[in-house]
Amino acid sequence: MYRSHTCGELRESDINTKVTLAGWVQKTRDKGFVVWVDLRDRYGLTQLVFDEDRTSSKLLEQARHLGREFVVQVEGEVIERTSKNPKIPTGSIEVLVEKLTVLNESITPPFTIENDTDGGEDLRMRYRYLDIRRNPVKNNLIFRSKVTMEVRKYLSDNGFIEVETPYLIKSTPEGARDFVVPSRMNEGQFYALPQSPQTFKQLLMVGGMDKYFQIVKCFRDEDLRADRQPEFTQIDCEMSFVEQEDILDVFEGLTKHLLKEIKGVEISAFPRITYDDAMRIYGNDKPDIRFGMEFAELNAIAQHKDFQVFNSSELVVAIAVPGAAGYSRKEIDALIDWVRRPQVGAKGMVYVKCNEDGSYKSSVDKFYDQEDLAKWAEATGAKPGDLICVLSGDKDKTRTQMSALRMEMANRLGLRKPDEFAPLWVVDFPLLELDEETGNYHAMHHPFTSPKPGQLELLETDPGAVRANAYDLVLNGNEIGGGSIRIHDKEVQATMFKHLGFTPEEAREQFGFLMDAFQYGAPPHGGIAFGLDRLVAILGGQETIRDFIAFPKNNSGRDVMIDAPAPIDQEQLDELNLKLNKPS
Amino acid sequence: MYRSHTCGELRESDINTKVTLAGWVQKTRDKGFVVWVDLRDRYGLTQLVFDEDRTSSKLLEQARHLGREFVVQVEGEVIERTSKNPKIPTGSIEVLVEKLTVLNESITPPFTIENDTDGGEDLRMRYRYLDIRRNPVKNNLIFRSKVTMEVRKYLSDNGFIEVETPYLIKSTPEGARDFVVPSRMNEGQFYALPQSPQTFKQLLMVGGMDKYFQIVKCFRDEDLRADRQPEFTQIDCEMSFVEQEDILDVFEGLTKHLLKEIKGVEISAFPRITYDDAMRIYGNDKPDIRFGMEFAELNAIAQHKDFQVFNSSELVVAIAVPGAAGYSRKEIDALIDWVRRPQVGAKGMVYVKCNEDGSYKSSVDKFYDQEDLAKWAEATGAKPGDLICVLSGDKDKTRTQMSALRMEMANRLGLRKPDEFAPLWVVDFPLLELDEETGNYHAMHHPFTSPKPGQLELLETDPGAVRANAYDLVLNGNEIGGGSIRIHDKEVQATMFKHLGFTPEEAREQFGFLMDAFQYGAPPHGGIAFGLDRLVAILGGQETIRDFIAFPKNNSGRDVMIDAPAPIDQEQLDELNLKLNKPS
Fold it and tell me: ipTM greater than 0.85, yes or no?
């Protein structure tokens, strides 16, 4: 036994107890006649004391030479602390050391192991094992473990079976690029790592498994945008004999369970909004509804005046930014510059200041009188003191721009509170999405998503109008889960493949096993998948998923700690029947 | 809502209730005036009844045309069954159907979906989604889910944190072959899939995580022996500030928890045996101790007589097979043939029948008198009616042969009871293992395993004699877990790498990040990993792990259901900067 207690558990009630502790030296304070050492482990900090009166001079000398991050074991007696530290749970006691053993030394760490470290991102990634010693990272990992355990408890208690699906599967051309794995035993052939267990979970439904879940790694070989990882974790679920309502019910329950157990937050029924409404009201299919600033379309009241910019626009849309009427000319100009940045892409912005005296001052006073502007205020719900921002142009683009502006203003005003949780369902997604470049439609969710009842015929005439039994769970402006009711009829599935541009041969080659399976009595089924990394980050009140992953990769897909990927031996390549086109 | 109840829950108390059920047609019995249909889902079977008196003739006709595995929904009333079936929980009731909807049809399945199916292994693998509908497979998967949930509960309750380690890591030459994953973004470089999260869990200990676990997929590109899978699941654990005793304690606790919760079996302290004793007494480092037949070494009492076979042998070893003295001459001859098979490899076998009258009859009566044989009986613990089997020769080989014979006799005598559980710890494993072919030593467990205290010097003089702080948990003749106390001192680790034949440069290239980490205060630590597939199979009272894996691969590493691995497009190869040496 290396220790009788952890560094986080001793209290006043332990005074006079002989204890053995082990941990890392956080800090040493040498006051000459007395040396204090903060000893740290996963569970907390305990102050050790060595003093001239009660400790041998040899021991005091030993303590004096302890370096930061040395691993030590101490035996001693718990005593009352003269100057208590109410900030830490062990702050009322200290341990008077009688024996000190250095278990391992440490060279000076490349950054300080403190809550606020002096280490930059790159350095901390390279020495991730030291970064994990820091409370913020350590606590994030513990938090993640707690969330996954609660997910498992809830789903198990609701009759779900966790089934492991294979990692070495088959490459499909659909969607993002697969990572592939050359097979040595099957020369010239490759496995693929799953982008999701989609087909396997559907096969489990064909297999009668009824309620399946799995917390599982998935892989996508994409060019990494910020905060994407080539491997990520999914809470993957599927149910049989269900309609959309049943699924929303179960997973709304899961989300409530997590919010309650993990955050102590109780939330009643989640609002639901259709995809079309979300786009109309928030310009976004994952709206943050912790705050208002809902879109008001002003076409009817702002067009047909002399303002040509609006008259020639497909959409004129406005939001009322609360309390921003006081913006100076300079601030307004800066905001207009902001919406004109290429990342946002608006041509300009019209604004109306709603003065406290009930009057309006706008950038288009030449075209609109007070009465006109009062209508805008009414439409947007603007109150005295608010700033109405108006964008116009092409409908889809303008909505996206306004959504960006809405989020920016919410950030500036501090309305996106990390400890406030506003989940909602976005439902009735389009089945297909037009690829502007190729002019082809592809599945918005995936090719197994079922169209709304009675809309199958629309596929022929107006594919973009077909709505799907597809839904996303959105939390604080992030999509944390998405799913659909699947097609369980092989004829409907064949029609879908056709509309997605697969020849029957291609469909057979890629999804033959699924189509075969559907011949043997597939039940009606549907499911959902949550992005665990994102879910945990949001529940943790943070934005970056990387902080919730033990060993994340950087934006080039590299693990800088272990220096992977890396070249492999010629012998390994030969065994795999491979050679490099260009030597590495 | 597709159903109000499952097919497994209706009881007599539900009689007169209107219900909606959904499931698969297991069987239809048409008696003309009445048709019974067994409806099946994950939860059970419910008998549906359609009859001339109470059902419309149209409905009766519909029922008559239901095929096996059709997916149907029925509405009806729960009624009492005239001839009850006590074998199933729903056997007292049936549902008088008022409405029948066919949700999906099925073509005739390639094998019967019954507990005892007519489908062969290959066919069932190809249509695994249908095999999963069968109770034996379905129940195995549910059982597995239950075991993993209990593992997680126990470890969480004991302060362990589940941390996900990466799947895209770096290839190391140690041990079995890695599966590799070419990187598109890092041209000419490869990730490797982990054979285990060994180094990452050690880095987590350096990171202060203290108690880590993970249920995780691991990958080995080995030529597959029977009942090995290229991807398998491990319960991976590591603890800091522990000695061997602490680890055995926690994981003995886990095993007891599982046996109690899953099997209702309570077991007191697990026996412990050293590796050397296990080899001496059972000829095997994973002894099945559900039965006796312990080895007795007869050298002292059987050598130095006139029997040259024994005199020239390094080892003469015997077991007493209970109740086998009655073996006929023919049976004995067959047994001798059995030990001579190449798979066993003995040259011959001496036997002694211990007759009921206390006399002995042996195959070596020419050399040994009754008094000699009585000593053999005493040494082996043979009783009247037992058969003593004696093998001799080279020590290691003879032990292995005798171990095979012991297991064979136990199987023949039905002593390996699937519902009896006899766990034990095998401890003090050799640190190194001699590779007979190359004459080099390699790590028996892995290169991070620590030698027993004070034995480091022995590495120079007698490497094979060094014992390690390594242990296996053995259950019913299977190794289900193994681990060790790790080296936490970078000097000791460097010495180990040297003895394993790594140059300092090779060690640095392969394990540099671990050796770097050990400079910053690595705590004493150790761990264990359980093979989940095997553990679940044994707890389930079965031998083959494949039956407990949802979608297993065959002995060529192929998934015959999805037909993977498979060739990939030229475009994919080009993007990865790869070409095939020989076209596939």
Answer: yes
Q: What is the pLDDT of residues B233-286, one digit of tens each?
A: 999 999 999 999 999 999 999 999 999 999 999 999 999 999 999 999 999 999
The nearest alpha carbon in chain B to A108 belongs to: B520
Between CA B382 and CA B375 the distance in angstroms is 10
The pLDDT assigned to B176 comes to 79
Q: How far apart are CA B479 and CA B485, in angstroms?
A: 18
DSSP letters spanning A454-491 = T-TTHHHH-GGG-BBSEEEEEETTEEEEEEEEBP--HH
Identify the residue whose tokens are 């994030």.
Answer: A140
For A291-412, CATH gives 3.30.1360.30
> How many CB pairs below 8 Å do chains A and B form together?
373
Q: What is the pLDDT of residues B90-116, one digit of tens each?
A: 999 999 999 999 999 999 999 999 999
* Options 3.40.980.10, 3.30.450.20, 1.10.3080.10, 3.30.930.10; CATH of A138-272+422-549: 3.30.930.10
Using a CB-CB cut-off of 8 Å, the residues of chain B touching A488 are 103-104
- First vs last C-alpha separation in chain A: 50
Helix (H) or strand (E) holding A495: helix A490-499
Contact B300, B454 (CB under 8 A): no
**Which residues share a beta bridge with A20?**
A75
Mutant choice from B167, B168, B170 vs A, greatest count of A C-beta within 10 A = B168
Q: Which residue of B has its CA nearest to A66?
A: B521
Inter-residue long-range contacts of A332-338, CB under 8 Å, 24+ positions, other chains counted = A335/A389, A338/A405, A338/A408
Q: Which residues are paired to B182 by β-bridges?
A: B190
pLDDT of residue B387: 98
Contact B241/A3, CB-based, under 8 Å? yes
Torsion of CA A113, A114, A117, A121, to 10 degrees: 60
Nearest neighbour of A582 by CB, restricted to B168, B188, B199: B188
Least CB-CB distance to A241: which of B3, B188, B488?
A: B3
**Is the CB of B163 less than 8 angstroms away from the CB of A141?**
yes
- Determine, for residues A564 and B133 on separate chains, whether the beta-carbon distance falls below 8 Å: no
CATH superfamily to which B148-163+195-272+422-540 belongs:
Bira Bifunctional Protein; Domain 2 (3.30.930.10)
Interface test with B, best of A114, A142, A190 (most B CBs within 10 A): A190
Chain A contact set for B512 (CB, 8 A): 563
At B42, is the secondary structure helix, strand, or coil? Answer: coil
Q: Note if the bond before A504 is cis, omega within 30 degrees.
A: no
Arch. (CATH architecture) of B12-104: Beta Barrel (2.40)
Tokens representing B176? 């079995």
- Diameter over CA atoms, chain B: 93
Q: Which among B22, B171, B558 is the nearest to A568, CB-wise?
A: B171
Residue A476 CA to residue B40 CA, distance in Å, equals 42
Which residue ranges of A are tagged as binding site?
A: 174, 220-222, 229, 445, 479, 486, 531-534
Helix (H/G/I), strand (E/B), else coil: B212:
strand
Q: Is the peptide bond preceding residue B565 cis, with omega within 30 degrees of 0?
A: yes
Residue B169 has a pLDDT of 96
User: How large a percentage of chain B has pLDDT more than 90?
Assistant: 81
Asked if residues A521 and B104 have their Cβ atoms less than 8 Å apart, the reply is yes
Chain A CB contacts of B579 below 8 Å: 578-579, 581
What does A31-77 look like in DSSP terms, one character per residue? -SSEEEEEEEETTEEEEEEEETTTS-HHHHHHHHTPPTT-EEEEEEE
pLDDT in tens, A454-463: 888 888 889 8
Flag if A109 and B165 touch (Cβ within 8 Å).
no
Whether B393 has a binding-site annotation, put simply, is no
Say what the pTM is: 0.95
